[in-house]
Amino acid sequence: MPPTPLPNPAWLAPLLHGPAALDAAAQCIETHISWVVLAAGRAYKFKKPLNLGFLDFSTLAQRRAACLEELRINRRTAPGIYEAVVAVLGPAQAPRLVPLEALEQGAEVLDYGVQMQRFADDQLLARQLAAGTLTTAHLDALAHQVAQFHAAAAVAPAGSAWGSAALVRQQAQANFDALATVPLPEADRAVLAGLQRWTQQEGQRLAPLMAQRQASGCVRECHGDLHLNNLVLIGGQPQLFDAIEFSEALRWIDTVADIAFLAMDLQAQGRPDLAWHFLNAWLEHAGDVAALALLPWYVVYRALVRAMVAGLRLAQASDEAARADSLAQVQCYLALAQQLSRPRARWLWLVHGVSGSGKSRHSARLAAERGVVRLRADVERKRLFGLAPAATSAGVVPGGIYTPDATQRTYDHLAALAAQVLDAGFPVLVDATFLARAHRAQFVALAAQQQVPCRILSFDAPVAVLRERVERRLRKGGNASEATLAVLEAQLQRREPLDAAEQALALTVDTSQAVDWAALLPAAGG
């Protein structure tokens, strides 16, 4: 870490003030690795001449290469924001910005930067969250976009070190090495030491899984810095920007390492419910339930990354107030990492009821509030047949996807996934009709085998309400469920009532009125 703040380059002030200024209102925002100049309609990002070990911008050639890489990787997700690489031409007292392709041979280049389309600061997801305007619909759209981005991203070449267990553990250790230089009270030092032991032990335990996922193509050219300040609403839709350009090792990572950053950040901002909503939405689109076994390790790692960044700011802080704020951030992220490293209680909930009973809508909120992985039969049935969650199956699959055989395959698949979630250390909620007693028994037996509590959340509403909901959902479209009124009538005829043993596990949820989960289900696993 640099012991003192870096001085601004000589050409920066003339870009902001005087005859060479970009415009009268130009201003500069400084981060721990960049200067960002904001002008009318444009933003220009210039890299500090630093070598911090995990990044090296110390030479002009390195900064030029990093700018070109930043343009390339961010155009994957935000092509309308990232416009060009520009050169800062001298003299320093009267600098000019020229697009790289228009640079004349022999020109006096003082530095390089990335030219971006400027957007309103209040469109950042961090600002949206603070203002209370970040919605679950935004997170649904973001989860879909991230899953598509990961699916299309380049896969790490076979035999490369990217995403290997050895490299990942080395990166985790780098956080501890950097934090060792931060002046901390003894209590925080003890927390840091405990986290280091946990990270080393879990890293060793998870090494075979990390190697397996690397070999199976889960390590890809991801974003690498996926937190709320690097996400923005453009035209009401979330976009990813400011991906890591300075380190291939920090960008070529397991996809779960990417989404873990946002999950951690939402929890750090006091919204674990939104973190879980995003995680469940991402799982629905990506289908990567196996990633959950690595999630605790990576959310702790991400919290320690933020602690390390706050430590960098602490080292560069020029006044006492800034130092105090940076130290408080280090301590906050250490406390969060400690919380995220603790084992979770596990349980298995069955969400039971006919189409239109409100299972999916109300269980989504419950899963988010309680931090539960949700598995949906409507989604997983389609995945078995190679269909996207909202895709229409009619006429696509010979024989259809709702045959008795397909239904049994779906429940078997859900049971296997639920076991996988429980083995990863998480509670799980399975959203299906569970009309047949045999299907319910399959999951009650799984809970007994896993030695976890089991509850049956039995959803219902008056038949007229059920019919109206099914009709409305069909008109609206875009839902994983394809149930029609005919399907509903058939379900009502064949549903098997809960027997006495099941009744002992059951909680009836009347969705014709407001559902208050705090009152209905006060104990998380009870």
Automatic annotation (TrEMBL):
Pfam families for this protein: AAA_33
Membrane spanning stretches: none
Gene3D superfamilies named among the record's database cross-references: P-loop containing nucleotide triphosphate hydrolases
Record InterPro entries: Cell-binding_unc_protein (IPR052732), Kinase-like_dom_sf (IPR011009), P-loop_NTPase (IPR027417)
Family annotation (PANTHER family): GLUCONOKINASE, SLR0207 PROTEIN
Name by which UniProt lists this protein: Aminoglycoside phosphotransferase domain-containing protein
